[in-house]
Amino acid sequence: MCTAKHKGKPSGLGRSVAYDGGQYMPQSTPTTEIPTTAGGGLWWGGLTLCHRELIGYFRSRGRLFSALATPALFWLMLGSGLNQAFSNSPQVAQGLQIGYRQYFFPGSMVMIVMFTAIFASYSVIDERNNGFLQGVLAAPIPRTSIVLGKVLGGALIATLQALVFMLAWPVMGHWPGWLSMSAAAGMLLVIAVALTVIGFALAWPMDSTAGFHARLNLIYFPMWFLSGAVFPYDSVPLWLKILMAVNPLTYGQTALAALMHGSNETASGPVNATCAAAIFMVFTILLLIATAKQVARPRSDGLL
Question: Which end of the chain, N or C, is surrounded by fewer C-beta atoms within 10 Å?
């Protein structure tokens, strides 16, 4: 007969206790190791968030249609309405030798990227309001991984949608070759990254989608209109040329158009296509660094 007395049940952190014949035997509980920053937490967290963005996109089929429909209608209506006037303009036709439908096509692709970047930016505010973002910030991963995951996921989705629209280019415009079109797809990805980062940086300090929408109207659409997507740089007055020259998106649009048309002569911008691509890539890198530093700092209101 067992007469052992127990004053209390011992316990331990991270282990369970089993009773066996008058004794409590500690048993180890398997734990899951969470990667730290030194062990790849930056990429582990970023790629996980990117994967989540892609899953959400493929489950929401309406996003593909909504992002493609408006730019396609813009291209069809503006391209058909202005094609004859554009082709008959001596100042424009002398340098470009293309119709307005062909000229406006790369700009329509940038518009698709811009709309997708807007959708990706709205999700930052929604995820903060529903508590998901607070859970990510509490995880043992650096805050930079949030920038990496959200931007990479949004940029890949935007590029995929624009590439779907690009499938019509062999029918509508001059085919410059696979090498040039592959470079154009790469440039399109860089543009998608830049526009997604801008939206993320605007959405990060905000909790209201209404206020965020007002900021978008003041930044995104003027950037697109003044990028050379709608009208050539060489055909506008001096004050518009100055605005286009200080607009970073102008250089991405110039490089994309030159690659798709297969000739630097069809690009309309303050510099040639090679310099434009280099300038825009440097701008995108600096923008990523600035946004990562912004997210690494706590918000001024004390919230995550």
Answer: N
